[in-house]
Design goal:
By secondary structure, the chain is α/β, with parallel strands linked by helices. The chain has one domain: Rossmann fold (3-Layer(aba) Sandwich), CATH 3.40.50.1010. Helix content is 35%, strand content 28%. The chain has an 8-stranded mixed beta sheet with strand order 1-8-7-6-2-3-4-5, with helices on both faces. Helix 4 (110-123) runs parallel beside helix 5 (140-148).
């Protein structure tokens, strides 16, 4: 695995490459809160920086839908955020659900949706490079399988949530840190 710099012109990028971006929304949100102390990210600007001049197939954003009965305030805040995402060109929202175990919400169905989309779109030859915005090691085998299909996989994550297995399976690491997000905030 190679590590790319945080420079938007890093590496020799193929402008003809078709890029699919897969964003693990919960993973990104918590990492932004932990590392940047904010989460008001402009997704169009973020996607553009990840592309580094390459052609976007589509961005896929995955998360769970908040429970309107148990967390009404969080649900309405999420609805406003989802409206912004739905208005973002070439961005698809894929939602899992939450299940409660001992009163604690557990994310269900998100990781399998990400892995399935990565594999299906690679199998259909719809992208040449996939960018997974997550440091979750659960994706290691899916990443390796996509690479075995002849695709390139870049991982974009903060050092604090990098899985060793995921990094070993990927082609390139895009290290996210507060400096990476300068100019990418909504406000």
């Amino acid at each position: 695995m190679l590590e790319s710099s945080n420079n938007t012109n890093a590496g020799t990028e193929d402008p003809a490459a078709r890029v699919a971006i897969f964003i693990d929304g919960s993973n990104l949100y918590h990492a932004l809160e932990e590392n940047c102390r904010r989460a008001d990210l402009s997704f169009p600007k973020f996607v553009n920086k990840l592309l580094r001049g390459r052609r976007l197939l589509r961005t896929y954003y995955y998360n769970i839908l908040q429970d309107s009965r148990r967390k009404p305030q969080a649900f309405w805040q999420q609805q406003k955020f989802m409206a912004v995402l739905h208005a973002t060109p070439y961005l698809e929202v894929r939602l899992g659900h939450s299940a409660y175990r001992r009163g604690i919400a557990v994310e269900k169905g998100v990781d399998i949706k990400i892995a399935t989309d990565m594999l299906q779109l690679a199998w259909k030859n719809l992208y040449t490079t996939g960018i997974l915005v997550s440091g979750d090691g659960d994706f290691s085998y899916a990443v390796q399988t996509v690479k075995n299909m002849g695709k390139y996989i870049e991982i974009a994550c903060f050092e604090s949530n990098q899985s060793k297995e995921l990094l070993e399976a990927s082609d390139t690491l895009i290290t996210l840190n507060p400096a990476f997000f300068e100019g990418l905030w909504v406000t």
